[in-house]
Amino acid sequence: MGLEEKLPSGILLTSVEKLVNWTRKASLWPATFGLACCAIEMMTTGAPRYDLGRFGMEVFRASPRQADLMIVAGRVSQKMAPVLRQIYDQMPEPKWVLSMGVCASSGGMFNNYAIVQGVDHVVPVDMYLPGCPPRPEMLIDAILKLHAKIMDEPLGPVRAAEKAGQRTDLVASSVKYSRGKRTLPIGVPEANQR
Ligand code: SF4
Q1: Which atom of ligand 1 lies at the shortest distance from residue 35's CA?
Q2: What is the pLDDT of residues 22-37, one digit of tens each?
Q3: Closest C-alpha to ligand 1, atom 6
């Protein structure tokens, strides 16, 4: 954008910021980018049981030019790193990166010369998701936390200066949405009957 660079801060810009961030977080389109076993969990997350369509992101885009979220699902080999960077560069701004699984985040158990020891050596990462593999609930939790981060993003340098030092409250979504009820993991029969 460019308008936010010119406008003074105030109620109007704050409201516009909320609206823009809401539209951005409610229509994240992920790039189709599965690298290893974590990708199976990512695909499961898009399937009917977990239904990423609830967040407006069921459309995994085959073209990076139509995507604004890169979910790095799996280990990144040295050979794949430049390809990953090229896909990232082809995505339009604003864009976000979610590092899914311990391999993508730190190399995991692949502590060797063939695997990049953390995808943040190649692209900037907005959200790290631990686990091997992370279950779909964990990916959804990371996506909801990314939503919180997007909602808190300043629109332009004036708002960035105003919001400097303020932190996004990243409460676990299982806590945030439980409304005081005890939550059971999916897979426990009682939880599935609700
Ligand atoms: S974190 Fe585990 S499931 Fe994910 S890519 Fe690495 S080995 Fe596979």
Answers
A1: 5
A2: 998 898 999 987 889 9
A3: 103
